[in-house]
Amino acid sequence: MANSKIRFSYYFIILLLGGVLFTTHSNGQSVASGHGVVLLYHHVSTKTPASTSISPEKFSEHMAYLKQHHSVVPLKMLVENIQDGTPLPKDAVAITFDDGYQNILENAHPILKKYDFPYTVFINPDLIGKESHQLDWSQIKKMAKQGVSFANHTRIHKHLLIDNEQSDWLNTTMKNIEHAEQSIKNNSDFDLKYLAYPYGEYNESLSHAIVKNGFVGFGQHSGAISKHSDFGALPRFPAAGIYANLDTLKVKMNSLDMPVTNKSVNNPQRSRTNRKVSQSIQVNLDDMHKSQLACFFSGQAIDITWQENTFSYTVEKPLPSGRSRVNCTAPSIAHSGKYYWFSQPWFVPDENNNWPD
What we know:
Blueprint: H1 2-17, E1 37-41, E2 43-44, E3 53-54, H2 56-69, E4 71-72, H3 75-84, E5 92-98, H4 102-114, E6 119-123, H5 137-144, E7 148-152, H6 169-188, E8 194-196, H7 204-212, E9 216-218, E10 237-238, H8 246-253, E11 256-257, E12 260-263, E13 277-283, E14 294-297, E15 300-302, E16 304-307, E17 310-315, E18 322-331, E19 339-348
Parallel strand pairs: 1-5, 1-10, 2-3, 4-5, 5-6, 6-7, 8-9, 11-19
Antiparallel strand pairs: 12-13, 13-17, 14-15, 14-18, 16-17, 18-19
Helix pairs in contact: 2-4
């Protein structure tokens, strides 16, 4: 365990201090052009819940850094280029917001417009114009003319992981998602078929169903995106609340998607009676420093074991109620200062079998 703590301290320092160099193949095209990062914000305000908020001043600091060091691209471009193998600009980042709050227009939009940054807002159409803190459709149409895109966050932002043993659960959930998509299309002409799961919660059945129905899903677990990613549950880096620190966010924005080829456990939803987790992850090691891979849970390093190209971990204590995740990172061989990133979310109901907000 002592070795794990030393390893954690060592890699955390490396993550904070790591710079970025860029290498290319002989044809001049960088391997990293097939990777992109999506940032997640909610509120841009000092008067909203701290856990999901960033001040306008801090948000402006984030955007100034992006302008200098990254290529901010539309979410649609990032997703489609990765899917069809078209190279992305260097260090591509897409910006997203969840929930459609008024303060996005009031506080974030002027800053984003200053830098001419495209961004996407995931909205709950049944709430639009019906609650004072939400955007209305006229504002959405005006923002759309200025390069903002809007996508699906389900109808009213409720937990989706109800009792999925009910025979009609998945069908009902998909009707909710399809209804929201049609409403967004009718009111704003957007039909991206991008879904951000409320609270980032999903299970294997749901992520498979949305892909089958032509959607791309987005969670709230961390990581970069590449062709290896699960397009039913793409990661996004939260960038507000405790994650707003630009020093640590810089490393995340420079990350690469870990090339996972197989996982022993794919379903992130757990029951109250099944809260102990172990997982084995098979990866392509061509560009990873295998010996320097490290995994973390609740901010603490956890032990890993290797068997050829597969690493395994166990979370020793039962998972807590609500949302948690295991993050694993390993430095790239070819891209000095860049880290491959893997994040596995876990979702557990509370003692009453409800899903905590």
